[in-house]
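README: folding subset

This subset contains proteins for which both the sequence and a predicted structure token string are available. Records are stored as plain text. Below is the entry for Nidogen 1b (695 residues), shown exactly as it appears on disk.
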Amino acid sequence: TIKQEFKGIDEHDHLVMSTDLDGRLPAVPLGSTVQIKPYKEIHQYSRNFIISSSSCNYTITSPDGDVQTRSYQWRQSIIFQTCPYDEAGWAGATLTTQQLSVDQIFVMFDANNHLIRYAMSNKIGPIHSSLLEQNPCFSGRHGCDINAVCTPGEGVRFSCECTAGFAGDGRYCHDIDECRETPSVCGPNAVCSNQPGSLRCECSAGFVFASDGKTCVEENRPVDHCQRGSHDCDVPQRALCRYTGGSAYICSCLPGFEGNGRGCRDVDECQQQDRCHAEASCSNTQGSFTCQCRPGFHGDGFHCSPTFSEREKTRCEQQRASAVADSDVPFSFRPRPTVGRYVPRCDERGAYEPTQCHQSIGQCWCVDANGQEVPNTRTGPHSSPPLCIDQAVTPAPIGPTPRPDVQPIAPGAYLLFAQSGKIEHVPLDGYIMRREEAKPLLHVPDRVVIAVAYDCVEKMVYWTDITGPAISKASLTGGDIYVCSSSELQSPEGIAIDHVARLLFWTDSTRDTIEVSKLDGSHRRVLFDTDLVNPRPIVTNPAYGRLYWADWNRDGPKIEMSNMDGTGRVVLVKDNLALPNGLTFDYENQQLCWADAGTRKVECMDPHRQLRRNIVEGIQYPFALVSFGRNLYYTDWRREAVVAVDRHLGKETEEFLPQKRSRLYGITTTATQCPQGMTSISQRGKAHLSVISLA
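--- output ---
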């Protein structure tokens, strides 16, 4: 006989009860396993009592493998007090029957805390009916965040509550950075690493955990002299120290220097032939060189042309002059174009402006560097002008021009963004941009760089340029540029890396294609070439083998998703979009985010449950977007800036204005390590593997 008395909820929100046991329980040998099979209970209840009965079988497996099957009968009576004021609700009520179905029972003894943990999976409802509406917590239609717990209530009511280590309203939960809130939580000689819902303590280099598993003590092991700075390599400006295991390391001179690594001397590139143009002077610098055109010539030093006192008119200027000169007003002090005639717009250098408009008919369109209309970009009256990329090459700067290669940067987290003929980097201190330390990473003269991406495995930066056109890459540790692909490209404007499967994806807005290859450009394949008008941003989710891209087609903008082998193509978002220009994927929270230059919003959604929410509104003209921790960073054409947005606070927190003011294009980050929790290639299924075996 078991008698229980429930005494209500105490001040700790715990249910208080007393239990009296009278009788004997069957003997179970020590170390045995007890398994209770699924069973059903019939509950009959009236105004002040509930009675139930059930019969259940269970098996006992002893440590030596002997199995016994036993059974028991269970009868219970529950007496309670109903509300004395609810007389009408029970008037004439008959005995009601319900069935409790128990599927799983789990019992575990926690020896450390002297607790018995008990859980069961069950469902209650009418005996002969399957039409009872199920609580959303059980059906999965609750909409709680992936990091929240759904608590069922009465009927179909429920509540969402963020789990430990997360904060929010339950519908959306964000990770609590315990390392920032309690910096000393891991103790001395340890590094705190924030994890989703928790934290991880790791001992600093040269230290290991003591026997208590918490305290970090000095370890007697080989030393990484490169990290400690106790090596005998030349200074970091001339040499690189590479740790090779144990206490060994290798010294090597940086590009532009020669020697054994312990002593490096500058290479005078000016002594080598054909470094600069024949009409340019070469100036040697430490580890590099510069070229400058001689007086009477202009150019970047690698290409020099004679300088004339009066510059010849460009094609745009000639076309404009012809339109303006054809005037039917004979006595005007200033020529004016004939009414209804199209007059091209030229910039201060005489090049075609990327957006051209015919005011008389109210239409605008994009043009290339030769003034030719880019297909599928023309807009009609009362529409916003199209989103046009300036395809004119930025003129060479006055003075010496640096050689086109990567200047090595120290390890750490950086923002990389494209600005016409160069890629700049801005160090990140947590989420703060160290603006005073921003500098160019890579100069690519005579190129218009659009999209940038980063491979966290090999520490390589990839980019597209539409003047080549080409897709190229270079190492952040320094060295020359490697061209991955330069054939059958017209306007590659989006690029993405799958660092797990070692794949390269890109969009071509003129060919209207989405393509894939290996990272070196080999085994190229077209994934999609239909139902695309203006594809631009593209991102990957290696954990699930997914590919996402946006098409800013003004007649039907959309964001799509597919598997990486081209199967399973679906439209994720098509409503309330205008110019979805920037796209990024947050690996940690599995969120797809985009910046829209038409709606002037930044939004995010869970692509699995398709829950969509606004992050910030009222932005100006975003081009590209990248996620890093709790922040989103985007480049803005009108502000000519990099803007930081705190997605948890829902507002902009910081702005970086480069020293040279012009349009900014693609943006990415260089994380110190690859995203955690990525599945291996073999776990992603045959669909993803078929992409890797491109033929």
